Amino acid sequence: MQSFRIKAVLDVMPTLGFLNNTPQFRYIKKNMMVALRQHGDGVRHLEETTVAYIKELLDKMETESSPAFEPKGMIRTTIGKLLMTLIYGFGNEKGLKRFLEIEEQSKRMFSETGPGLLLDVCPPLRYFVPSIRNFYSQFLSLDHAFNELCNEFTDQRKREYDRNNPNIYIDHFFDLIGKPIKVGPGTTDTYAIDEKDVTAMGMNLLIAGQSTSRSMDVLLGLLVNHQDIQERAYREIQQAIGDRTPTCGDRAKLPYLEAIILESLRYGSTVTFGLPHCASEDTELNGYLIPKGTMVFYNAWSISHDPRYCHSLRL
Fold it and tell me: Can you tell me whether residue 256 is helix, strand or coil?
């Protein structure tokens, strides 16, 4: 089951996080995981690209004339370029600027408070309340703009695609268009992707990557305000790696740094209420009946900050 805003998104583009458990969902999920394993984490050329972009970011920070400055814009740009390079193989300035503008607008459109939440709870309000009507109009415009941008990115990559050298995430899907494939063991269900699905594969990853910049903001804020933790992490890096460029293979050597990252993700709780889920069968919880088909939201912030299990900060 989807909320009203999510249904509006799905009318334009099949977005993985919002789909029900259908053959289409299982097919898209399976092939996204395959593509990420083949062209994602650990692939040498992506690692080299990531290091190059980070060095570029650090160089920009070092040229800042003021000892104190706001790094959010630089970090968002770097993460945007990484996402575009991972998905489409390019990070041109014009496309990146449009993506970042849409990303900034989407933060408000998908906010879990304000007119967006009222629209989910009572969709008819869009006909009577001017602020909600205006919000809904802007929401649809943004949805179509994001879809149009992803279509342009996908078309550009398809023109450059070399079937004998599929080395970018989106390349994995071009040869699958129109080919029915069984979607899972023990089932006869099949699904064949089309051009719209391929565009959605890239769009899904762009949407998922949008939370990265906020997570980085939280992490940097915590480190700035906990100098002792920052210094301990630095010592671990120096002892395990020294002055050379780190690689994905160094992860196992940096347990304290990984603990810091995981704890900052818990503490920051990027998506307060998570994605809506649907009860697949009648369920009783604490004496309350949750009928099959009920839309369920969970309070991720409350879970990850429950004092019975988590202190205010565990670093």
Answer: helix
Alpha carbons within 13 angstroms on the beta-carbon side of residue 142 total 22
User: 299 to each of 81, 230, 303, how far by Cα in Å?
Assistant: 32, 30, 6
The CATH code for residues 1-209 is 1.10.630.10
Residue 43, amino acid: V
Amino acid letter, 224:
V
Both tokens of 12, joined, read: 């334009």
Instruction: Identify whether the C-beta of residue 201 lies closer than 8 Å to the C-beta of residue 170.
Output: yes
Q: Cβ–Cβ contacts within 10 Å for residue 134, how many? A: 12
Reported as a single tens digit per residue, the pLDDT across 205-247 is 887 777 787 888 889 889 989 999 999 999 999 999 998 888 8
Neighbours of 239 (CB within 10 A): 10
| Contact status, residue 280 vs residue 292, Cβ threshold 8 Å | yes
Residue 133 has pLDDT above 70, yes or no: yes
Nearest 5°: the CA angle 162, 164, 166 is 65
Closest CA to 45 of 151, 212, 167: 167
d(Cα 161, Cα 110) in Å, to the nearest integer?
33
Helix (H) or strand (E) holding 131: helix 130-160
Length of the chain: 315
Extended beta strands in the chain, E state:
181-182, 190-191, 277-278, 283-285, 288-290, 295-296
Q: Specify the pLDDT at position 154.
A: 92
Predicted TM-score (pTM) of the model is: 0.77
Tell me the DSSP string of 263-309. Answer: HHHHHH-SSTT---EE-SS-EEETTEEE-TT-EE---HHHHHT-TTT
Half-sphere exposure (Cβ direction) of 70: Cα atoms closer than 13 Å: 3
The CATH 1.10.630.10 domain(s) of the chain lie at 1-209
Whole-angstrom distance, CA of residue 264 vs CA of residue 250: 20
**Side-chain-facing half-sphere of 42: CA atoms under 13 Å:** 6
